Hints:
By secondary structure, the protein is of the alpha+beta class. It has two domains: 47-165, no CATH class; 170-278. It has five helices and twelve strands. The termini are far apart.
Amino acid sequence: MDTHNSPNGFWTARGWRVLVTLMLMVGVFGLSAVEGKKKKAPAPPPADLPGHVAYLAWQLRAVDMDDSAPITGEIQKLVLDHLQEWLPASPDRASDVAVRRELEAAFYQLRYPTSGQPACFAQPWKGGRLIGAGYTLAWTRYNRVNVVALFEQRDGGTRLAAVTSFAPFVDLHYEFLPARGWDDFRFFIYGTRPGKSQPRLSATLYSYDGQNLKSLWETHDVYDGKIDVGDEKVTIRYLKEEEYIREQAHKRKPPRHEATYKITPLGLEIETDREIPF
Length: 278
């Protein structure tokens, strides 16, 4: 009997073909599984501070601002933990320049588009010294977070007194109010945010009383804002965005505005807000 032409012979040949195909598939998938098991686990972060910070910051490239807190928070902890060890061990060297250089060393392995920009100060207060150790961490042109840690040095000791994150999307700058007989230390943190035709100013007046750091006054996203801190007054010059767009469309210079604030025991009090020539 010709088995190839019989129903049984046909199904037997077909069965062999199916069996061979299944065996080949099992072999391929089995090999893939073995190769998968052989793949190395992701490398752990470097043990040194600059390497660990760079390892974490590189992961921010694909992270939206709203989802960045776990990574930026971990970087913040690494950096501030290091400063809490380094500052007490170097009380005589801990000037604003020395702290800035220590932060620069922590960020020196960051690669474009990630960056870390320190902003530091050291100011005398009540027989001691206050050190502001701040930085801006950026991973795109617009996505930025910042941290300012306030350290108090007194009687040969150094302690972390307060930490603030100020405002997102901006860089860091400081201005200091002159001593006015008040019991607290007052200073501005301000910065600008890119992303429109003009940068936008955010500023906060902080008060530190030896225990707590709190905000006495703040403003955010002031279009083309520029702040000037004097002995008695604070002035902010700015544009109104809708006026700027309208006047630019007609190729005219828009009016500028100037808000003047009086420095008071409670913070700032508005005195005038007027239009000035461009």
